[in-house]
Amino acid sequence: MKDKRLDTGQVSRRDFLKYGGLAAAGGAVTLGAGTLVGCAEEAVAASVEVETLYTCPIDGKRFASYDAMREHFEQNHPQDAIPEVMPLTVNGAVLQVQVEPQWTLQEALQHALGLTGAKTMCDRGGCGSCTVLIDGVPALSCTMLAIECEGRAIETIEGIAAEEKWQPLFDAFANHDGMQCGYCSPGQIVMAKYVIDKYGSPTDEQIVNEMAGNICRCGTYQRHPLAIQEAVRVMGGGSQ
Questions:
Q1: Residue 121, pLDDT score
Q2: Which residues contact 140 (CB under 8 A, 6 or more apart)?
Q3: Is the pLDDT of residue 23 over 50?
Q4: Does residue 220 have a pLDDT over 70?
Q5: What is the pTM of this model?
Q6: pLDDT tens-digit map of 49-82
Q7: All domains of the chain, ordered by start, with CATH?
Q8: pLDDT of residue 48
């Protein structure tokens, strides 16, 4: 049955966390509340569409294509070198990305691709909020240089949310109040996906051990095994 609140715009906090709370801000990614909110039975993630942005380091102007930035340099900065780009494989797509040599992967995802799911919280690799998967393995994107990631498969929370297969994981975290303020939730979900991929049907101990590096100031730790194990049952065709 369709939730009447969704027709009136009266979306509850739980609904927002369940269907729209992990959405990227801005227009670079078509993955927000507008695409995820619907009746609970029908809500599925939309595809992730990344708009690669190029920025002139001299005057700060931004361009939608590298050719446009090249033309800008030829007309306005003919004596200066045009910034180079590098390929990054993000959520299955090979993208030509302009990055500064000192940028971390988290900064490149946010500033060059508009993917804001990986959060900068501690900026020291100590909280897990910036977690992404690189070649299927969890990595702290605030501690890796973007230039180190060329040729490697990067998967972010936006890519996971775009796969209908993983919707039960988001649902389960919402059902068990595994998301509170939501700031650490992208990193938690990415890690939870890794745990399911690694173990299939993980035990409480395996979940706790694997997710020990993901800090939640709201204290939702005890709810994570419940949410992950429920998601496994639903994804395997069982009941909640």
A1: 85
A2: 125, 128, 130, 131
A3: no
A4: yes
A5: 0.76
A6: 666 788 899 999 999 888 999 999 999 999 998 8
A7: 1-47 (no CATH), 54-159 (3.10.20.30)
A8: 58
